[in-house]
Amino acid sequence: MFSYEIKSIKITDPLYPPLLKEIIDPPPVLYYVGQWPDNSLFPLAVVGSRQADDYGQQAIDKIFSEDILNQSVIISGLALGIDAMAHKKARHTIAVLGTGLDEKSFYPKENWSLFKKIITNGNLVISEFGSGVGPKPQNFPRRNRIIAGLSQATLIVQAKVRSGALITARLALENGREVLAVPGSIINELSAGTNLLINQGAIPIASSQDLKEALGLD
Asked: Taking the model in full, what pTM does it have?
């Protein structure tokens, strides 16, 4: 039977992520399950549409080479679509929830098996919300600020012009972090948001070499 222990840390705790302390409104308490990643890994947020299509999966497979996976921790929101694709691709990963970490509160239910896999693989799931806090619309933008705040850079893979992924990109910029985006077809609404970000100055990422150079990895 799968079981796990929910722990917590305060912002004054040495384990609290230093990058997250730098944002405008860091959560005073974080609840977590699993193991904190090695501090030497590059913290990269990877987010995008819940309705991601084959192009989104193909882009992730093309961009994330073995050396990038070995040197980075991929941070995402454990949502359907791009988030789930990113967590599954990652070797090291942090999932940030917009609910409590207990099974009853967990959302989306379709990703419960992925939640368990992340933990059993020695990775980390965190939330600022305590047990019993279910999915509420206002909590997901708050979750997004943590995703952006934990990361030195945020990569948007697929997103509509109005999407939570673009909220995450805006929050990253507000906190002085780099924003990267995967370009896509001008006739696919799932690329309209990423193309817009590139037009506004985001770094375009079309290959693993692009990503390595953007992150300063060997």
From this structure: 0.96
